[in-house]
Write a structure and sequence with these properties.
By secondary structure, the chain is of the alpha+beta class. The protein has two domains: about 5-80, HAD superfamily/HAD-like (Rossmann fold, 3-Layer(aba) Sandwich); about 85-185, Hypothetical Protein, Haloacid Dehalogenase-like Hydrolase, Chain: A, domain 2. The chain contains six helices and eleven strands. The strands form three sheets. The chain has a six-stranded mixed beta sheet with strand order 8-7-6-9-11-10. A three-stranded antiparallel beta sheet has the order 3-4-5, with no helix packed on it. A two-stranded parallel sheet has the order 1-2. The longest helix is centred in the C-terminal third of the chain and has 14 residues, at about 155-170.
Length: about 200
């Protein structure tokens, strides 16, 4: 069977922790695959506006993308599929996070980041780029939310323990933890790799 599509994780895979951009050789490899007639792109928990800078603004490298853990699917530079997080589930999640010391929750609208619960100073060492541009809000926003995250001042074990505790009280949403202190929120049962089905004929 001929390969037609190549998708790769970014953080910790193509992009070493602490780096802002992938190596130039990664961009060159993406272009070599594109020139060979393959579709190639990133698969990430990030939304597309946060993926593009990792490729130094090279739009060809992200024209095909599984963004926001498969909640947004792009092909040929166009959004072809999008799912939203359950608002009631997000409200329940915010209430649960509120009871956890040095924890918080953020939601996104495009590239805009909203602090629903917690403190910017706790988020800053965990995800500096989000903390740098965050806006505080009093509640879960009314707009449809595609991306939300939980953060906590904890190591791997503490993050995992909090994730399990939160999942037990909010079955409408799913969580995963890509790194210590940070959790990605998704629709219940939706996994990052599920988005590939939208590329199938």
């Amino acid at each position: 069977m001929a390969i037609k599509l190549v998708l790769s994780d970014i953080d910790g895979t193509l992009l070493p922790r602490g780096n802002a951009e992938v190596d130039r050789c990664v961009v060159e490899a993406f272009h070599a695959l594109l020139d060979a007639g393959l579709a190639v792109g990133p698969a990430s928990g990030r939304a597309l506006p946060a993926i593009l800078p990792a490729f130094a603004g090279d739009e060809a490298c992200v024209a095909t993308a599984l963004a926001t853990n498969g909640m947004q699917v792009y092909t040929a530079g166009k959004l072809v599929h999008e799912e939203y997080l359950d608002r009631e589930g997000l409200v329940q999640l915010a209430a649960a996070v509120r009871e956890v010391p040095r924890a918080g929750m953020i939601c996104f609208k495009g590239a805009e980041v909203f602090l629903v619960e917690g403190e910017r100073d706790v988020l800053a060492p965990i995800f500096p780029s989000y903390a740098a541009h965050i806006m505080s809000v009093d509640a879960v926003p009314d707009f449809p939310v595609v991306k939300a995250n939980v953060f906590v001042d904890a190591g791997v074990r503490g993050t995992q323990a909090l994730m399990e505790r939160l999942e037990a009280v909010m079955p409408r949403l799913g969580l995963n933890t890509p790194m210590a202190g940070f959790m990605e929120c998704g629709a219940g049962g939706v996994q990052q790799g599920d988005g590939h089905r939208h590329y199938l004929p």
